[in-house]
TrEMBL record, chain A:
The lineage of its organism: Bacteria, Bacillati, Bacillota, Bacilli, Bacillales. Belongs to the binding-protein-dependent transport system permease family. HisMQ subfamily. This is Amino acid ABC transporter permease. CDD domains: TM_PBP2. The chain crosses the membrane at residues 20-43, 55-76, 88-108, 154-175, 187-208. GO terms for cellular component: ATP-binding cassette (ABC) transporter complex. The keyword Membrane applies. It is a multi-pass membrane protein. GO terms for molecular function: transmembrane transporter activity. Gene3D superfamilies: MetI-like. Keywords: Amino-acid transport, Cell membrane, Membrane, Transmembrane, Transmembrane helix, Transport. It comes from the Bacteria.
Automatic annotation (TrEMBL), chain B:
It is found in: Cell membrane. It comes from Mesobacillus campisalis. SMART domains: AAA (SM00382). One of its GO terms (cellular component) is plasma membrane. This is Peptide ABC transporter ATP-binding protein. PANTHER family: AMINO ACID IMPORT ATP-BINDING PROTEIN, GLUTAMATE_ASPARTATE IMPORT ATP-BINDING PROTEIN GLTL.
Length: 218, 240
């Protein structure tokens, strides 16, 4: 088997651009997803069942259907409906953010519910309102516990952003498939893509485990 | 000071407090005893409005705290509570634990709250732990901080729910000592405890609860030495 390093070298600039887009997509997804996820998580925790219902349906839909389907729906349906035409990068960011938001909403809820009931009671017994107790006592502790699962969600997003290739957002896998199509090769493009993803996810895990250790010693 | 009238509390179909009538005078120390599940914690939690009540009234200095028109948060400020499990805020230092409510609820300037907090820490003998995190304290130290934290809101009455039950025996004394001091200074207190020595020494009155009722109440010595009710006798014979 002759492994053609020369075609990898030829595609290197594109793969590099693709890597930057992959990082951009997953970063946008985790950031927008976190903001939306907090709001949706709060919405689902509202005591009024009627208000909580839409949030709960949102989470069920985005966690219960494949991201692939969501990307196609958003690319060919939702984005054109708003912009008149579609845009692959915008659609990819939107799909990843909305999908991540559903998972992050659940991470957020689990984080809050993991805080001992006594914390809220102690805060209330000191005269704090529910809002003050949330803000000063519950949320700071919950956020700390959310960091490991949020990091995990970030890693998932890096990998799943590869699905954006099918709507021609020029990230890593888009260029991998282009290379495969041009040279009728399998190993060179896909192993290279796999290696890039591995470097990304391993680096992120490393950063996260250091962050976690730092938080633990605080 | 506190007047409880026909207080009832149910969890679903389980009626936990059946008909509680109790008056607590200023500066009085009332000790509540009774078997597990008799409703002692629930009674304290009702006084502090941590539980919504099912029936009856609770007046604090003439104000009906169960009246929806009254601001519950304002009412809670008047009542300090100390929990069995301390419930210190683990992400805040000792002094921050104490300052938090005065600063956020009463808008006391941080400097004033800190000075007052240090004074309270001195009172419970933990001044040198001001900058420590709760996780580095022993159980007895944690509970003394929790007492200081409650006192920082200058409550009119302090509720203690088995404050020494989660403690190693060798540190129970230091917490009881702080509570005795408080009683001596004239704090009105309601204390749920199994520490009969404390009840005898500090209590003005002992209340025996069973099955959601106040079965018997009296001054400590007569209640312990000459209980009138059979259920009180049975309980005391087990714990004394
Ligand atoms: N949040 C709740 N929901 C349902 N039932 C409850 C709740 N809290 C307490 N109970 C029930 O109320 C009864 C009285 O409980 P409470 O905690 O007041 O008893 P206690 O006298 O403090 O007992 P212990 O000595 O074990 O602390 C128990 O049967 C308990 O199961
Ligand atoms: Mg109890």
């Amino acid at each position: 088997m002759d492994f053609r390093f020369d075609i990898i070298a030829e595609y290197a600039p594109f793969l590099l651009k693709g890597t930057l887009l992959t990082i951009g997509l997953s970063l946008a997804g985790i950031l927008i997803g976190t903001v939306l996820g907090l709001l949706i998580g709060l919405g689902k925790m509202v005591n009024n069942k009627l208000i909580a219902l839409p949030f709960s349906l949102y989470i069920t839909f985005f966690r219960g259907t494949p991201l692939f389907v969501q990307i196609l729906l958003i690319h060919f349906g939702v984005v054109p409906a708003f912009l008149g035409h579609t845009n692959a990068v915008a659609a990819a960011i939107l799909a990843l953010s909305l999908n991540a938001a559903a998972y992050i909403a659940e991470i957020f809820r689990a984080g809050i519910q993991s805080i001992d009931r006594g914390q809220m009671e102690a805060a209330r017994s000191l005269g704090m309102t529910h809002g003050q107790a949330m803000r000063h006592v519950i949320l700071p502790q919950a956020f700390k516990r959310m960091i490991p699962p949020l990091g995990n969600e970030f890693i998932v997003l890096i990998k799943e952003s590869s699905l954006a290739a099918v709507i021609t957002a020029p990230e890593i896998m888009y260029w991998g498939r282009a290379m495969a199509g041009q040279y009728y090769k399998v190993w060179e493009p896909y192993l290279t893509a796999a290696l890039i993803y591995l470097i990304l996810t391993i680096s992120l895990s490393f950063i996260l485990s250091r962050l976690e250790r730092r938080l633990k010693t605080e | 000071m506190i007047k409880i009238q026909n207080l009832k509390k149910s969890f679903g179909t389980n009626e936990v407090l059946k008909d509680i009538n109790l008056t607590i005078k200023p500066q009085e120390v009332v000790v509540v005893i009774g078997p597990s599940g008799s409703g002692k914690s629930t009674l304290l939690r009702c006084i502090n409005l941590l539980e919504s009540i099912t029936g009856g009234h609770i007046y604090i200095e003439g104000k009906d705290i169960t009246d929806k028109k009254n601001n519950l948060n304002k009412m809670r400020e008047e009542v300090g509570m100390v929990f069995q499990q301390f419930n210190l805020f683990p992400h805040k230092t000792v002094i921050e634990n104490i300052m938090l409510a005065p600063v956020k609820v009463r808008n006391v300037p941080a400097e004033t709250a800190r000075a007052r907090g240090l004074e309270l820490l001195r009172k419970v003998g933990l001044e040198e732990k001001a900058e420590a995190y709760p996780s580095s304290l022993s159980g007895g130290q944690k509970q003394r901080v929790a007492i200081a934290r409650a006192l920082a809101m200058e409550p009119k009455i302090m509720l203690f729910d088995e404050p020494t039950s989660a403690l190693d025996p060798e540190v129970v004394g230091e917490v009881l000592e702080v509570m005795k001091q408080l009683a001596k200074e004239g704090m009105t207190m309601v204390v749920v405890t199994h520490e009969m020595g404390f009840a005898r020494e500090v209590g003005d009155r002992v209340i025996f609860m069973d099955g959601g009722y106040i079965v018997e109440e009296n001054e400590p010595i007569p209640l312990f030495e000459n209980p009138q009710q059979e259920r009180t006798q049975a309980f005391l014979s087990k714990v004394l």
